[in-house]
Amino acid sequence: ENVTLGSGVSVSGSVICRGVRIEDGVRIPDGCVIGANSVICEGITLEEDTVIPTCTVINGEAFMKNVIKKGTLFGSDGIKGSFYGSLSCDSLSLIGACVGSNAEKIGLICDNSQRAITACEIFSSGIKYGGGKCMYFKNGFLAMANFINMYYRFDITVYIKSLPDDDGLHIIFRDKNGLKPKADFERKVESMFFSKQVPISDNIYDVESVNGMQELYKSALANQCGDCLNGLEGYKIILGHSKECRVLSGVLSALGADVY
Fold first, then answer.
1. What is the chain's percent helix, strand, coil content, to nearest 5?
2. pTM of the model
3. CA–CA distance, 127 with 129 (Å, rounded to integer)
4. Which pLDDT belongs to residue 242?
């Protein structure tokens, strides 16, 4: 319905949803799904089993970050994609629901970018739908996510951060030992995601927002540094400007170091 095809377009054994525009010379092989109101720009050739979310524009430069290849949601360390493409609101909520269906107690933390905060809020709503119990911590980084994970003994901790490009996101998962989850967990989440068969939980838990974890993290870090370093009076230490460095700067200053 309302699909526009350019000249020289080849489509074989794929699903094209309503309102899609496919420009000249595009090749769509078997097994693809093109979401509603998406645009495939001139000359693009898709791989088999490519799934393109709704309202996505695919051009040569944006191709890889705007699609999810069927059956392969996870990369080498979590999930990467575009907030306006493969990790759209619908996809984030669905992934959250899949995680909530496969883990009971979940920690959720993000960096302080508005993109990551918005993604976390959408992700947490999906966790609720899937029946998971979620504690949400804002404004952190991966080392803090690992600390929170060990402190609360979550089944899964999810850390969402913005990537340097205009709309990229990276979702990182850690198990209760602070390690990448086992392949079995990833396969279950992928299976639910692509089948879109997430059971509606009988128990819906409110997301618990937690404040003050940065101070707790700094306190634990100070205790560890104090045990190892026994004071830093007279030392001059130069740090970078990342959030991790700013937190460490406060700890090292409290131990007597001059931090620059």
1. 35, 25, 45
2. 0.67
3. 5
4. 67
